[in-house]
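FAQ: What does the model actually see?

It sees only this:
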Amino acid sequence: MRTYSWIQHGQLFDLTIPLWTIDGSDGRINEFAANELIMNSAIKVDLVEGEEFVPPHTVEIDETEAELEIGESLELTAVVTPYNATISAVYWNSSDNRAATVDQNGLVTKVGPGPATITATTVANGLTATFELLESKDE
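And it is asked to produce this:
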C-alpha cells in the first residue's frame, strides 16, 4: 500500500493506493502543477484479495459546448468507462479562470468575458475530455 499526501490551500489530502503504485512514467497518473489539482476530499481504494486494478479506458463529458452569460452556471457530468473502473474520479480544470470557473463537481460558472475550455481528467491515468464554453454574442 502506498499513500501520497499533499497540502493545498492549508488542507491535508491523502491518496492511498494498495497493491499497485502510481508512476508518471507508465501513464497511470501525471504530475500535477500546483494550480491544476483541486480535490475536495481524499481518495482511498481498498481492493479485495484477488481483485485487479481496472483502469479507466475513456472519459467523456455529457455536453460538448455551450454559451453562457456572465453569472450563469451549467453542471457538467464526466462519464468514465468501463463502469467498473477501480478509480473513476476526475478532477476539473478551466483554461481561463477569468472567463469561467469550474468546481470539483463539474459546476461551470461564467465569471467574465471570453471563451474557456473546461477539462475533466481521470485521477487514475490522466485521460481527458473537454467542453468548450463559447464567447457570448453579447460580449
